[in-house]
Amino acid sequence: MQPPFHSDSNAPFFFIAFGQPLGRTKKLPTASCHALSRRDRQAAPSYHSSMASLGLVLLVAVVVSAALMPPSAVAQQLTPDYYASTCPNLEAIVRRSVQQSMAQSQIAAPAALRLFFHDCAVMGCDASIMIVNSNGDDEWRNTANQSLKPEGFQAILSAKAAVDSNQQCQYKVSCADIMALVAREAVFLSGGPYYQVELGRFDGRVSTRDSVRLPSVNFTLDQLNAFFSGLGFSQNEMVALLGAHTLGAADCPFFQYRIGDPSMDPSLASQLRGTCGSNPSGGFAFFDPSPVRFDNAFYRNLQGGRGLLGTDQVLYSDQRSRSAVDSYASNQGAFFTDFVAAITKLGRIGAKTAATGEIRRVCNFPN
């Protein structure tokens, strides 16, 4: 299996979403498999234009608690002004880079946002999802992570290249912090809330395939709560965090089993039957009617029985979480406030210190 990126000395290295960059096509095509080669690790990373197949879009993985730093300890380490003296223009540099990535492909925002979730929920927020190990034992090669879109990796590493091209900032900003900043820009530039990002994470040195554990797309609320509570989230925080599904789309294999579900809106079921019946492996559907805008339409969809994934629709079908869905569906401001609190909390999970991590020169390889 080959990574969703390769090295190229002439270009900067470059979840779920769809299609090709808008500069190449006006319509959103289905995804195709990609094959990329790893070359010399000293070359500046670049991204292959082919795309990975769509896949699992759940945001979290089960984590081994011993591997993660307690949130209280992390909160003392992280601060929004961590780079105020070493890289004062950091956030402006990252924003310009993300704007460019989003202009090239509308996949970039949802892909980068979900990449951040998948990183934090496994080994902590340490950019271990970016590592490519020569022996093939790394996180991205776990089957559950094969859904992570190349455009997400591209957005992160394009931002890293932009930061390191600034002489004052060069090799001073961790890949983990860049991932957190890119995730914020993905939300904000898609119409969502702006929020301060706590910084000061160091990059991890370890990435293993077996460290990844993802819940199934048909989990019950009890099962979802068990997974999220392992990350330190309450049920309401989980409902807010899953609102990130307002961006992007899902692949037919991950919701096709629900088309006969009586809880699904009949008109949606008919539409999905046509989409997936003609192209079961390559077809996709949007999570909500505004797939490139960060808003509360995801929750209104759930109220109407139009959730794609079982793990999404259960948030409304189960009475214990329905009130949170209703609240966010009727009050976008409440959703934004709670989402910011939840993603900030996510960003504190397992942050590495100078003693346990490093600042990678190239995000794909430990120094």
From TrEMBL:
Annotated binding of Ca(2+) 1, by residue: 119, 122, 124, 126, 128, 139
Disulfide bonds: 87-169, 120-125, 175-363, 252-276
UniProt name for this protein: Peroxidase
Main location: secreted
One Gene Ontology cellular component annotation held by this UniProt entry: extracellular region
Entry-linked Pfam families: peroxidase
Any coiled-coil regions, as ranges: none
Catalytic activity: 2 a phenolic donor + H2O2 = 2 a phenolic radical donor + 2 H2O
Cofactor(s) required, per the database record: Ca(2+); heme b
GO biological process, one term: response to oxidative stress
